[in-house]
Design brief:
With 346 residues, the chain is of the alpha/beta class. The chain folds into 3 domains: 2-111, Helix Hairpins, CATH 1.10.287; 120-237, Rossmann fold; 271-345, 2-Layer Sandwich (Alpha-Beta Plaits). The protein has 11 helices and 10 strands. The strands form 2 sheets. It has a 6-stranded parallel beta sheet with strand order 3-2-1-4-5-6, with helices on both faces. A 4-stranded antiparallel beta sheet has the order 7-10-8-9. The protein is elongated, with a radius of gyration of 33 Å. It starts with a helix and ends with a helix. The relative contact order is 0.07.
Length: 346
């Protein structure tokens, strides 16, 4: 977008100079007539008209009696030579800005639409403010496909330069049309981090209408809105409350918090805590945990097992524990090993 932005600046600058030359020409003709006759000889309207037809070289002839005013024709030559090139430059830069800027925007949006149509099982991130940017960076690092919806096109393009070319929709996430453009029908989940709780609630309701099976996670500031979001099946995260717990944890257990922070914030650290749900087709169903060949998956560590019919996790499970359909394994491992494990066993 740098080229259209530069052309815009050049067009504005040329336009300002053109207005200055037009003002000088109008005032110049008026003063020449006044000095020659000792009184206003030409109206300002006639002087402005003469200046414009001189700059644009339309050839309507002299509407002012230049022959009877000393220096008027010399002044016309100066205006013509100084303004002709400026007027041509202004028209050319303005045309280039309109054509190149619009074409660039059309091609960019078309490219985004093509990328989005190829996605399935992706995450839709609504809003890329401070929280949204952090979410987007984590999704990008973990190779999770996602689409961003944000009304600020310049912000999206800036983030694309910083984080790589990710698909995005320039629009309002509270509008069904923009969610449909982000392929909400085939998405795995939606994360709404808009600044207004009302907008987050609207996103959650709209997503439920468009895709009832969709997983929706929303940030929320007000506990009242948190209850409303939970009523429609959205998962709620309250950043302020989590921030308070994080600060208390930093004081009470600094080493543990430092360990988790390093895992999440260090871009060179590939290790994450992830979850893997065993489907009906998994080859681990009915097998003990020891059936997993841990040597094939590097630093894989099974930290807990969550049964689909039991909300209380089984922490630090023994290798003899039998695995069932729908079990969710909470594991610590690197991203490559996790992907291999999911392909082989999930």
């Amino acid at each position: 977008m740098a080229m259209p932005h530069t052309l815009k600046n050049r067009s504005v600058l040329a336009g300002v100079f053109l207005l200055v030359v037009t003002a000088i020409g109008t005032a110049g003709y008026y003063l020449l007539g006044y000095l020659e006759h000792g009184a206003p000889f030409w109206t300002l309207g006639d002087c402005l008209y003469m200046t414009i037809i001189t700059l644009t070289t339309v050839g309507f002839g002299e509407i002012l009696d230049l022959a009877n005013v000393a220096g008027a024709r010399l002044f016309t030559i100066v205006i013509l030579l100084s303004g002709l090139g400026l007027a041509a430059y202004f028209v050319s830069t303005l045309t280039a800005f309109l054509v190149e800027g619009e074409l660039t925007n059309v091609f960019w949006r078309k490219k985004m639409a093509q990328q989005i149509r190829k996605l399935s099982g992706h995450i839709i991130v609504c809003g890329v403010g401070r929280i949204g940017c952090s979410i987007m960076e984590e999704l990008h690092r973990t190779h999770t496909p996602f689409v961003v919806i944000d009304p600020d096109e310049q912000r999206i393009r800036k983030l694309q330069k910083q984080s790589g070319n990710f698909p995005a929709v320039v629009g309002d996430a509270t509008h069904a049309g923009d969610l449909e453009e982000a392929m909400v029908a085939t998405a795995k989940g939606v994360i709404s981090t808009l600044s207004d709780d009302k907008d987050n609630l609207c996103v959650a309701v709209t997503c439920r209408q468009l895709n009832p099976k969709l997983r929706v996670i929303s940030s929320c500031k007000d506990a009242e809105f948190a209850g409303k979001l939970e009523l429609i099946g959205a998962e709620v995260v309250m950043p302020n409350a989590i921030g308070g717990l994080r600060i208390a944890s930093q004081m009470l257990r600094p080493q543990v918090v430092g360990y988790l922070d390093l895992m999440l914030r260090d871009k060179n650290c590939p290790v994450r805590i992830e979850d893997v749900t065993l489907s009906a087709r998994s080859n681990l169903i009915g097998q003990p945990l020891s059936a997993i060949n841990f040597d094939d998956f590097g630093p894989l560590l099974v930290m807990a097992i969550i049964r689909k019919d039991n909300p209380y996790p089984l922490y630090n499970p023994q290798r003899t524990v039998g695995l069932q359909e729908g079990d969710t394994l909470v594991v610590q491992t690197d991203i490559d090993s996790l992907e291999r494990f999911r392909r082989l066993h999930a």
